[in-house]
Amino acid sequence: MRADHGKFDLDQLPCTAFRVTLVHRIRSHCAYTRQGRGLWPQRMSRRRVCVETRWPPVLGKDDAMLQDAFGRSFEYLRLSVTEVCNFSCSYCLPDGYRKKPGPGFLRLDEIARLASAFADLGTWKIRITGGEPSVRKDFTQIIETLATVSGVRRLATTTNGYRLKDNASQWRKAGLQAINVSVDSFRADIFHKVTGHDRLEEVKDGIEACLDTGYEAVKVNAVLLKGINDQDLALFLDYVKNRPVSVRFIELMRTGDNADYFKRYHVSASVVSKALVQRGWVRKTREVGAGPALEYVHGDYAGAIGLIAPYSKDFCKSCNRLRVSALGKLHLCLFTEMGMDLRSFLQSDDQQDELKAFLGKSLQSKAVSHFLDDGITGGNHRFADIGG
Ligand code: SAM
Ligand code: SF4
Question: How far apart are the first and last CA of the chain?
């Protein structure tokens, strides 16, 4: 955004959704640069900009943008492709995955239609998740399918890494650009205790394979657990000293199934941020459109540290993601509702317009925030069901 946008006439823009998006972007940018006054378009008062950003967009054929009633735009889809997982992480599937009766998980053709509709509405980033996405036999084909959807510019996955060592290169060739690998501890005994598997070395080898194969972003996810890994910051820092890897500490979230576990092990990510600042790490300026992670960097380290703190104030303000479960249900938030069925719109190529209209309409009911602080976990019994 440059200051000469003062000459810009927003009223002349062709469609409402585009105007709303543009105004929202300008507003985010102003907040970001703290130079708001000079950048506001002269023909719009601040009051009117605020009113317009809350104006529900009307999604027409040419209006390519998913926006909610609070001016947030959603260009990022987290798509779960299975609920199955071979690990039994203590905070997610402590008793392992148990098969449930009912319909199967999304098929390749359904995945292709879903992604294509989202991409038409402005989604450019898709993360494949689960359960453990790589347990699917057709995982490479899922990558290939999503990578070729027009408009998808960033394809990522989150994995426990058990198939990574042997497949990193194949998945990269199929079109996967970024990867998050869950490693809750770099101590083998703790890794075993948390995941139920003695596979730390294999998973680490998998991460090296990703670095060697030219992934555009390699991240490590670690759920912060009191008394288990919250004192291990030094080990994670050693890991990113010479590796261009970003570690993401995720605050443990309460789900329908883990109330007691949550009480016992939840710890605020502020313990990490304080320790980072003491060690000379600095908060990276947030980029416009960035998600809710707060990222810290240090000149002596090749990697970075990110914090995902859903219990912090204003966490939901920067929400930019929607979720679809492996059973084809749209979740406007990880918490708060049971999911809206999309599968009936995924059975033929002729249903794309119907699906897009449904998505645009559904988004208007997205709540301003999760209500986790009130102990409300909505329909989320465990992350493996919706896709974390
Ligand atoms: N199986 C893959 C994995 O573990 O990376 C992908 C799915 S997993 C549900 C996605 C992410 O959600 C993982 O990084 C996991 O650690 C995180 N997760 C699961 N349950 C969680 C909880 N209750 N609170 C916070 N993060 C959680
Ligand atoms: Fe499986 Fe991922 Fe859940 Fe662990 S966090 S049990 S790896 S789905």
Answer: 34
Residue 174 domain-assigned (yes or no)? yes
Mean pLDDT by 10 residues, the chain (388 residues): 34 41 39 32 34 34 64 88 97 93 95 97 95 98 98 97 98 98 98 97 98 97 97 97 97 87 94 96 80 90 93 69 92 75 97 94 70 57 70
Q: Write the CATH number for 171.
A: 3.20.20.70
Please check whether residues 44 and 131 belong to one and the same domain.
no
- Between vectors from CA 168 to CA 162 and to CA 173, what angle results, nearest 5°? 145
Residue 14 belongs to what domain range? 4-55
Q: What is the pTM of this model?
A: 0.82
Mutual orientation of helices 108-120 and 139-147 as an angle, nearest 10°? 30
Regarding whether 155 and 95 lie in a shared domain, the answer is yes
Is the distance from the beta carbon of residue 93 to the nearest atom of ligand 2 less than 6 Å? yes
Spacing, Cα 388 to ligand 1 middle (Å)? 5
Name the residue among 377, 382, 370 with its Cα closest to residue 257.
382
pLDDT given for residue 380 in this prediction: 58
Give the pLDDT confidence score for residue 337 in this predicted structure: 64
Distance 332 CA to ligand 2 centre (A): 21
Count of structural domains within the chain: 2
Q: Report pLDDT for 312.
A: 66
Whether 37 and 90 share a structural domain? no
Output DSSP code: residue 42. T
Nearest atom in ligand 2 to the alpha carbon of residue 382 is 3
Task: Kindly give the distance from the C-alpha atom of residue 194 to the centroid of ligand 2, in angstroms, as a whole number.
Answer: 10
Pocket test for ligand 2, best of 93, 98, 193 (most atoms within 8 A of CB): 93
The answer to whether residues 148 and 108 belong to one domain is: yes
